Predict the structure.
Amino acid sequence: MPRALSSFIGRKDLLAELRRRIGAAPLITLTGVGGGGKTRLALELAAQVHRAYDDGVRVVELASARGGDPELLAQVVLSAVGVPDQATTTPLETLVDYLRPRQVLLLLDNCEHLVEPVAQLVRAVLGAAPGVRVLATSRARLRVPGEVLVMVPPLDVPAEDAPLDLDHESVALLVDRAEASVPGWRVTPENWPDVVRVLRRVSGIPLAIEQAVVRMRSMPVSLLADRLDDVMRVLTANDTTAVEHHQTMAALIDWSHAHCTPAERLLWARLSVFEGGFDLTAAEDVCAGDGLAADEVADALAGLLDKSIALPSADRSRYHLLEPLRQHGAARLRSAGEEEGVRQRHRDHFRREAARLAESFAGHNEAALLAAVDADMANHRVVLNDLIRDPATAHAGLQMSVDLARTRWYTYAGRLPEERLWLGRALAATPPTADPLRASAIALDAWIALCLGVERELVARRVDEADALAREVGGPVPAVTFVRGAYAVLALGAVDGVELLRQAHEEFGALGPAFAVDHHLAHIMLTVSLVLLGSREQAEPAAEEFHAECQRLGAQWGISWAHWCRGVVQTRWGDPVGALDVLIEGLRVQREIRDKWGPLWSIEALGWAHSRAGDGSAAARMLGLAHGLHRVTGVRVDGLVPFAWMTAQAVARAKAVLGDDEYARAYAGPAESVEQALAVVLDEVPAAPDLRPGGLTPAEWNVARLVGDGLSNPEVATRLVISPATVHTHLTRIYRKLDITSRHQLITLLAGLAD
């Protein structure tokens, strides 16, 4: 649920009716005039009833979804629901599979421009998921069987000669907003008639009231009422066909438009091409020109902010237009004949931005680059779609697809199937010529398919296709070298893939700073491959070198992978108990930067470390949690060969400690999301009291109990499937924690505890 930025006013009776109906009706569509408060009402209703749904509320904002593409619509819904789509099913199938067993309220906001694809999606979901209820806002009905259409009327307004009464909903809203934004203003018996005139002229439409309050910052309410009378009379005098509330809203927005400066009007219209928001740099780049100089954009934007036409983010780094105001601007842009020119500048800006983000990696700015892609992904999607569907610009669409893939945002955000969707579309739209860009795009597609656990033979064919094209091109294509090495290591467990990854690392490095992000990714995979398949003499220095490099760069995502590599080295050859701390630190970094991919690797590795340390229960819990994440995210880390080897060994050790039945009981159920899994690992406190003496860890307690039973170090190691050196390390810590110095003292202490 998004946080409400203002208080909710009125609608008590309508809310009560909706609360009664929503439990029985599978689909309720709130309809009414734009600006009539449908979204705010839906959010308030969802906030009031969310406890009735075991799996909560999911809010899906559709205003920025364009084109009516069912696949992209399902992608948007999947992202809002928090489930990455899976490579082996369509996005809609994945959504339906996820929702089928759940009790969820799905709030679909601003559906009117996507009525048919939204209706298809809703029919599919409601037909398969009996516990799901859908609450939609739309100016047009969805025409889905069982749909209950609820008109959201304007707020009630007082009669012309009504006495002062603050209980009217429209009065309450105006007073609340005016007292907050107009210093010292209060409703009084003297200004009450003018307040009534204002509310009656704007017909109680919430957005119109809020826009009227903006004017109260610069004029008394009496003058506002006079001017509203004039503007409504002029703008609606000859219109006998429009619905009254549409007339009112259009008239008020037109009046706001008339009170803007010429620069503000131009900017308002041109800002309508942005999807999901914009920053000042983008506004200057896209909206300047033809009557609006670049150095005038900031002042014009300030004017729109002052008039509440544009709204800022909390830190004022980004801005957006409310949807009715954006649509008004778009209509003005079309009528001025400027739309194609501004959209071309929008396309050019985000093509350049995608290339800049792919080429600007310096390490310390890694998280900022990923956040920048995330903030503008709605704009990137629109541009990609426009470029790819036009044969004249399809090659530019392929380049942009590759640039965005190189940023690694799709991996970071858990949106790997979407990356394949764009790459696949761009490749299909361009001729199969032999050039490095096409070979790199196919290689990226193969890499993502490998990460997603797509059938190995299909990935192999994709790798071969990229390799054949690279040979035809002549000269090295580093992306192809990289995917060949990654495939050998991860899909085959072949050591010769290590050298291919080393070669890719060198090839990317030779291309210079513009390919620093690719060079860094190759370094990650080279180190991972050595940690998983190399000897200790190879892996340990590689992990330390990579850790030092990431610290030098200040690359947070890279540092999380350096922790993973060092933790796995300690798990395999050193101190598995110490490895737990290293891996947990990596998980904390991953949570801090909101990484959706790395935690799957880290939680699985925690299972390996707990198993090596002799804590079978914790190992089973981590492995179960990781397996559940594979299922709900569609990222099949457990299908990668070296992972499968390590996990099989960990399961064997844990079962040797626990037995099959206890292992099954300890095996954690799946988490609903990566965030929930991170909370389980990093925040969850055991419910049962810790009865182990001296604060011993579960692994140390397992060793101590076996020593107390009279087993030697080699016998303990055999029983727990760990090395004698690890047993010795545990005993050293046990002695220190229990303040004893010998095996005999430990046996005596444990015997006393048993008594």
